Amino acid sequence: MKNLDPSAHTPSAQLIGRAQDLEFIRSFFADAAVQGAALLLTGEAGVGKTAVLDAVAADAAAQGVRVMRARGVQFEANISYAGLNQLLIPLFEDFDILDTVHRDALRVAVGIGSGPAPDPLLTSTAVLLLLRLLAAQEPLLVIVDDLPWLDRATNAVLGFVARRLVGSRIGFLAASREGSASFFESSGLPEHRLQPLDEAAAAELLAVTHPGITPSVRRRIAAEAHGNPLALVELPTALTGRQRATLAAMPAVLPLSERLQALFASRVAELPLASRELLLLAALEGTGDLVTIEKAAIGRAVIDDLVPAERDRLVSVSADDRQLSFRHPLIGSAVVEAAARSERRRAHQALADVLHNDPERRAWHLGEASAGPDETVAALLEVAAHRRLRRGDALGAVAALTRAAVLSPDATDESRRLSEAAYIGADAGGALEDASRLLADVQLNQTTGQGSLHAAAASAFLLINRDGDIDTAHRLLVGAIEAAGPDYDASDSALVEALHTLVLLCWYGGDPRLWPPLFTFMERMDPGPPELLWVCSQTFADPARTGASALPRLDALISDIGDDSTRVVRIGTSSVYPDRLADSRWASLRLAEQGRAGTAPVRRHLGALMHLGLDYFHTGLWDEAAELADEGMALCDEHDYPFFAWYFHYVKAIVTAAQGDEQASAGLAEKIVRWATPRGAHGARFFAIQARALAALGSGDFETAYQNAATLSPPGTVAPYIPHAMWGTMDLVEAAIRTGRHQEAAAHAAAMRESAMSALSPRLKLLVLACEALTTSGDAAIGLFDQALNLPGPERWPFDVARVRLYHGERLRRLRATSEAREHLGQALTVFQRLGAKPWAARASAELRASGYAKAASAQSSPGSLTAQELQIARLAATGLTNKQIAERLFLSHRTIGTHLYQIYPKLGISSRAALRDALVAHDLADDA
Fold first, then answer.
1. For residue 234, what are the contacts with CB-CB under 8 A and spacing of at least 6?
2. Closest CA to 170 of 335, 39, 355, 306
3. Which long-range contacts (CB under 8 A, 24 or more apart) does 671-678 make?
4. CA distances (Å), 210 to each of 10, 202, 433, in order?
C-alpha cells in the first residue's frame, strides 16, 4: 500500500517504556478505518512525542494505511498555509479529483496556483473533501508534530478537519508540547498525555543507550532527568569521558548537551535580565524558598520579575507557602548553564550572605563562591560534612569534603580531606567509584595521621569489594595504624573508624591470627577505647569467651541506640551473637525504611537488612527473611557491592536448608564458598558450611552433616574467634551421635558448657542444655531437656525450641513415656509445619506415628477463627501481592502484615503463601456448609 510519509522516519523496533501508550493509541484508532477519529498527544519537551508518532506511523504503514505527515517549523510560523503545503504537496496529482472551485482554491492556498486568496472556509472544505475522497480508496492517517509552530492558517484548517472525521476512514493524530500556546483549536478533542518514563524504564533506556557509564553516574543522570527520555539520552553526552567513568568529579549542576540547550536554554535566554537573575538564585538555592531568594536578590530584582517565567511556564509559584518550583529540573540546569561563571559566584555569595542560620548550606554556597584556596571556607565545609554524616547523608558529606579539599591551601589538609571523603564514600555512601577516584588523587605515602588512616581504611574496603583478599587488606590497614602510633588518642575519629573497619576485616577473615593487632591497638588508646568499639570487640570477636562480660554495657547501648545510621548498624553488629538483634529491631526497621526512601546511606541500609535477615530467621519469620535477602542482593547488584552479597545468600541458604530444599541451599552455599575461598573470606565460608550441615541433618545424611559441622568447629572446642561456631554446636552434637561418635559429642557438649554461651542468651543456653541432654543418659537427660524448655521466652526461637522438643520427644518415646513424648512431638510438629521445615516435620510425624498416635498432624484451629482483618489479608496474599503491596492497600505497615500472616498460617493449617489459595477455598466451603 502506498505510504506518503515524506520524512521517512524509521523508529526503533520497540520504544522503551511506551508499550501502554502505543497500545492506547493503536486501540483508539482501531476503528478509524470505519468511523474516523482524532487524538491530541501532549507532554513536556523531550518526553518522546515524536518517537511515539514515528512508531504509530510505521505501524500504520505496515497495516496498509496511507500516512501523511507534517511538522511545525518555527521559521515558517508566519507563512500562511506553510504547514498545509508540507502536508499536501505529495498529493498534488490527486487534486484533480476535486471539483474546479475547490481544486483551484486549494492550489492557491498551498502556493502552486495563482489567483486571489481563497476564503478560509472554502480552503478548509477543500482539504476535508480531498482527504475523504482519498480515504474512500484506502484508509488515511494524518500525523502532525509540533502544533505550536504551525502557521495560524494551517492550524485553523486542521482544527476544522479534525472535527469532521466521523464516518470516514481518516485518523488524525497531532502532538503538542504541554503548556505551549497554539492557534490549533483543541477544545472538545480527546487528549492523551505522555508521561515521563517510570524508574525501571528510565534505567533500561540509560543501560541501552549508555552501557559504559558507571552505576553512580547512571543514578545521578536518572535523578536529574526525572524520566525525560531526551534528557536520559543526552545528559551523559555532555559529560567528559572521565566523568562518565567516575574518574573525575560530577559537577553540582549537570551541563546540557546541544540538543538540551536548544530545548531548554533558548526559552530562558528570551527572559528579561531580572527574571534570569531570580531564576539563577532559585536554581542555586535548591529548596525554592522565596523568602531566601527574595533576600538574596535585594537591589537586583524583585519577586514580580518572575512573572515572565511563570507566563512561559518555566516555573510555578505558590503564594500559600511562598515556594518556587521549576516545571522541569532541567530548566534549572539551563538557567545555570546560561549564566557566566562570575554570575554564578555572585549568586552563591548572595545566598551565603542571607543563610547565617543554616551553617551547612551557607558553607556550601561560600565554597561555590570561592575563586581560589580559602582555609576558612574549607574548614566550614569540613564541619558541614561531619554534620551531614551524622544526619545519614554520606554522599553529601563526601561532596562537602571534596570541595573542602579543593579549597585547602595546605597540601596536607587537602590529602586529609580527600582521604576522609574516600573513606566515607567507601564505608557508607555506596559511591565506590567516587571513592576510587578520590584515592587516586591522594598519594598514600605522602599523607600522615588522619589522612593516612582514612585512605588506608578506604583502600582496604575497596580492595575486598573488588578482587583483593582479606589478608592483604588486613596488612594494609594494620600497617597504617601502626604508622600512626605507638600511642593512640581515643578521640581521634580517623583512628576509631579505622579500628571499626579492622574489626570487620578480622571477622571476615575467620582466622584467629588476625585479631591480636586490634587488641594491641585498643590497649594503647588513651584514656581507653570508645564504649561501642570495646563492646563490639568483646561480643563479635570471640563471644563464647568474652561476650558475657560486655552484656550490661551492650544493653545500655541498645537502650540509647538513637538514630545515627552508623551507630545503629554497629550496635546491631555487637548484638548478633548475644542474640540481642530483636531488642534493636525497631531501629533496624526504621533504617531499612530510610534506605528505601533514599535518606540513609546504602551501606547502612545493607547492614540493617543483614541484621534483620538473621533476626527473622532465628525468630521464625522465614518468608520475611527471604524477602529481605532478595532486597539486599538487589541493592548489592545496583550499587556494585559484590562483597556483601554472600551475607544475603547465606540467609536464603539457611532458610532453604531448614525447609528441606537441599538443591537450592546447596547452590547458594556453593556460590558463597567459591566466592569466599580465593579471597580468604573464611568467615563467609563458615556461614555456608553451617547451612550445609543443617541441610544434611534435615535430609538424614548425618555423615555429611558431621563433616561440615566439624569443619566449622572441631569437636571438643567452641572454635575461638569464629563466633559462628556457636550456631553450629547442636548440629555437630546431633550429627556426632547419629554417626556413633559419642565421645566427640560429649566432648563438644562439655566445651559448650565450659564456654560463656549460656550467659550470652536464652537461645544459646537452650542449645547448651539440649546438647548436654543429648549426651546424657537416663532420667538426668530428661531433667536437662525440661530445664532447657523451661527457659524464659521459648516462643522467640521457634525452630531451635522445636528441634529440642523433637529430641526430647524422641528420648521420652524410647523411655516408653508415650504420653509425654506425644505432647512434645506434637508441639514440635506444629511449629515445623508452620515454618515449612518439611524434613523436620516429617521426622516429628514419624516419631508420633511410632508412639502409636494414629493422626500425626498438628492441632489446627478452626479456619473460622480467622478475624475479618486476617481473612482480608489472607485473600490479598493469595492473589500474589507482597507484604508491602498489601500494606499499602490496607494502610498498615508491611511488618504488621507479616505478623498477621505469621498467625494466619497455623490457623489455616498451612506453612507458606503457596498454600493460601487452596486453604481459603476450603475455608469458604466450610463457611457455606
1. 256, 257, 259, 260
2. 39
3. 671/646, 672/646, 675/642, 675/645, 675/646, 676/646, 678/469
4. 21, 12, 17
Tell me, what DSSP letter sits at residue 197?
Answer: P
DSSP 854-880: S--------GGG--HHHHHHHHHHHTT
Tell me the mean pLDDT in the region 665-684: 92
Residue pair 750/791 in contact by the 8 Å Cβ criterion: no
Give the Cα separation of 723 and 751 in Å (integer): 14
* Of the candidates 604, 568, 598, the residue with the CA atom closest to the CA atom of residue 585: 568
Residues 250 and 266 sit within 8 Å (Cβ to Cβ): no
As a whole number of angstroms, the distance between CA 87 and CA 398 comes to: 56
Cell of 263: 530545548
Cα 251–Cα 252–Cα 255 angle in degrees, nearest 5: 55
CB 175 within 8 A of CB 24: no
Amino acid found at 76: E
Q: Could you give the CA distance from residue 39 to residue 165 in angstroms, rounded to a whole number?
A: 11
For 730, phi and psi rounded to 5 degrees? -70, -30
Q: Over 80: is that where the pLDDT of 251 sits?
A: no
Per the CB < 8 A criterion, the answer to whether 863 and 907 are in contact is: yes
Please give the sequence-ordered ranges of beta strands (E in DSSP) within 19-139, or none if there are none. Answer: 37-43, 66-71
Q: Is 41 left (phi over 0), alpha (psi -120 to 50) or beta?
A: beta
- Given a contact cutoff of 8 angstroms between Cβ atoms, the answer to whether 734 and 773 are in contact is no
**Nearest-angstrom CA–CA distance, 557 and 564:** 13
Cα dihedral sign, 794-798-804-807: positive
User: Please, are residues 336 and 283 in contact by the beta-carbon 8 Å criterion?
Assistant: yes
Whether the per-residue pLDDT at 392 is higher than 70: the answer is no
* C-beta contacts of 766-771 below 8 A and 24+ residues apart: 766/791, 766/794, 766/797, 766/800, 766/801, 766/804, 767/726, 767/729, 767/730, 767/800, 768/729, 770/730, 770/803, 770/804, 770/807, 771/729, 771/730, 771/733, 771/745
pLDDT at 657: 96
What is the DSSP-derived secondary structure letter of residue 289? B
Residue 408 in grid coordinates = 585547602
- pLDDT score, position 315: 85
675-730 pLDDT, tens digit per residue, is: 999 888 999 999 999 999 999 999 999 999 999 999 999 999 999 999 999 999 99
The number of residues in the chain equals 929
Residues β-bridged to residue 68 = 142
**DSSP assignment of 509-557:** HT-GGGSHHHHHHHHTEES---HHHHHHHHHHSSHHHHTGGGHHHHHHH
3-state secondary structure of 313: coil
Bridge partners for 173 per DSSP: 39, 143
Cis amide linkage into residue 486, ω under 30° from 0: yes
Rounded distance between C-alpha atoms, residue 129 and residue 761, angstroms: 89
Question: Would you say residue 853 has pLDDT above 90?
Answer: no
Does the CA dihedral 424-426-429-432 come out positive or negative?
positive
d(CA 508, CA 557): 24
Q: In angstroms, rounded to a whole number, what is the distance separating the alpha carbons of residues 868 and 861?
A: 16
191 forms bridges with which residues in the sheet?
40
Write down the pTM of the prediction. 0.69
pLDDT score, position 243:
66
CA–CA separation, 857 and 85 (whole Å): 83
Alpha carbon distance 673, 689 (integer Å)? 8
User: Is the pLDDT confidence value at 858 over 50?
Assistant: no
Angle at 694 between CA 847 and CA 717, to 5 degrees: 110
Which residues fall within 8 angstroms of residue 574, CB to CB, at 6 or more apart?
Answer: 532, 535, 536, 539, 540, 550, 554, 557, 580
Phi and psi torsions of 912, nearest 5°: -155, 165
How are strands ordered across the β-sheet holding 170-177? Answer: 66-71, 140-145, 170-177, 37-43, 191-193
